[in-house]
Amino acid sequence: MTLEREADVTVPEPDDAFRARLREFLTLHHPGRPPKDPRERLPWTKGWLATLFDHGYAGPSWPREFGGMELSFAHQMVYTEEMARARVPGPLGTGLNIAAPTIIKYGSQQQKERWLAPMLRGDLVWVQGYSEPEAGSDLPSLRTTARREGDEYVVNGQKVWTSHGADGDVIFALVRTGTRESRQKGISYLIIDAHAPGVQVRPLRDLTGGHLFAEIFFDDVRVPVADRVGDENDGWRLARTSLGHERAAGALLQAANYRRVLTELEELARERGQLTDPLVRDRFVDLEIRVRIIRFNAERTIGGILARGDAGAASSVSRLLITAFEQDIHEFAVDLLGPAGLLGKSAPQAVQRSRWLLGFLRTRASTIGAGTTEIQLNTVAEQVLGLPHDPGMPPR
Ligand SMILES: Cc1cc2nc3c(=O)[nH]c(=O)nc-3n(C[C@H](O)[C@H](O)[C@H](O)COP(=O)(O)OP(=O)(O)OC[C@H]3O[C@@H](n4cnc5c(N)ncnc54)[C@H](O)[C@@H]3O)c2cc1C
């Protein structure tokens, strides 16, 4: 596939009537500003997700059968733009974008009925247990084992860098059911109750002082065989499932969010009288061009889905563009604010409760999570440029 061919695809025009209805709903039911106390944020977000679900405004790309909206792409674009504009909280955990497409595609009917709606409604937070201390980019070397005993697996091992791990109720995990040397041929996809005996979650403190991640230990954890998705030893193929719709919607949501963030930074620079500085203007022009490219590339991802049924390599390009952009915009913001930009949020002179400094610290990890920049570059090299496959990585 070539980038030129994807760029030819036109994206349908958004629908104004749907936008108006959604805007009215968001005005009527907006949850307000997030609570200051971090302990109140989880129930507050869950309350909002339940409101969305109960009013039929959750899961824009999900099948209706599982509580979703099953929207067309044009409507999904409107949906993501309006959600970004309203600044309402997004989904909790990582299940919605990663586990749900796998369950929709490979789960049994009983599994779908049991897991999907409560995940979408935010009743249960799903977290991803893939990475291990010695298995990140090279995930097929993972060592957490699941030994079969009758109609149960006994799971032992450790996961690390689990986003939202401390809030997790359910872990969708890759575990080794084959021999130690079986690599991707001996991996299964298990759904593990995070509150089961033998599961220990230890939050990890990050650069911002928060606990975004956790490490999770499994010590003889018993998991029903019925909670395996797909066949035994077929988990690697399953883990690679994602609905192109979800990826495209995610890229669009980020494009819409960063459009708003850039406008807010411009307003801040204007208030501080910095927009007359030619060097500052130059940086803004660069970011403006990039935020538009991000949007066009997200549309191109959707165009690819409409034309061929899959997102194609444009989604890897999206991630590269977005992760570099979000690091650069925060770095620029901290430069722009000078010493005040380095103050912690409890300092009286802190600018906008240190959001730019926190963003600067938080986005250091953007080029690592969900596949490092180097791995994404490999994907682009192989899938877009047609270069030879990296011999150190498992076959695609
Ligand atoms: C914000 C964030 C959220 C995350 N959330 C989760 C989560 O919810 N669940 C989960 O399971 N994991 C999660 N992770 C873990 C993440 O998937 C891994 O950190 C990532 O895959 C890299 O693995 P690693 O840290 O072991 O680094 P390594 O794989 O050890 O990589 C170290 C360095 O070597 C480079 N490298 C490795 N292999 C190659 C290659 N073949 N070619 C070129 N360069 C290479 C890498 O790019 C990197 O610079 C998260 C990480 C972050 C930062």
What brief labels describe this structure?
single chain, 396 residues, Butyryl-CoA Dehydrogenase, subunit A, domain 2, Butyryl-CoA Dehydrogenase, subunit A, domain 3, 4-stranded antiparallel sheet, 12 helices, disordered N terminus, binds flavin-adenine dinucleotide
| Nearest-integer average pLDDT | 89
Strand content: 5-15%
Q: Can you tell me the CATH superfamily of the largest domain?
A: Butyryl-CoA Dehydrogenase, subunit A, domain 3
Q: Topology as H/E string?
A: HHHHHHEEEEEEEEHHHHHH
Give the beta-strand count: 8
Radius of gyration: 22 Å
Neighbour order of strands in the largest sheet: 1-4-5-8
Assign the structural class, choosing from mainly alpha, mainly beta, alpha/beta, alpha+beta, or little secondary structure.
Answer: alpha+beta
* Low-pLDDT residue spans: 1-11
Overview of the structural elements:
Mean pLDDT is 89; it is low at 1-11. The chain has helices at 3-7, 16-29, 38-54, 73-86, 95-106, 109-120, 235-239, 244-271, 278-308, 314-337, 355-362, 373-384, and strands at 126-129, 145-149, 152-163, 170-176, 187-193, 199-204, 213-224, 228-229. With 396 residues, it is of the alpha+beta class. The radius of gyration is 22 Å and the shape is globular. It has a four-stranded mixed beta sheet with strand order 1-4-5-8. The chain has a four-stranded antiparallel beta sheet with strand order 2-3-7-6, with no helix packed on it. A hairpin with a 2-residue loop joins β2 (145-149) and β3. It has three domains: 17-90, no CATH class; 126-236, Butyryl-CoA Dehydrogenase, subunit A, domain 2, CATH 2.40.110; 246-384, Butyryl-CoA Dehydrogenase, subunit A, domain 3, CATH 1.20.140. The structure holds flavin-adenine dinucleotide. The site of flavin-adenine dinucleotide has 21 residues, from β1, β3 and α12.
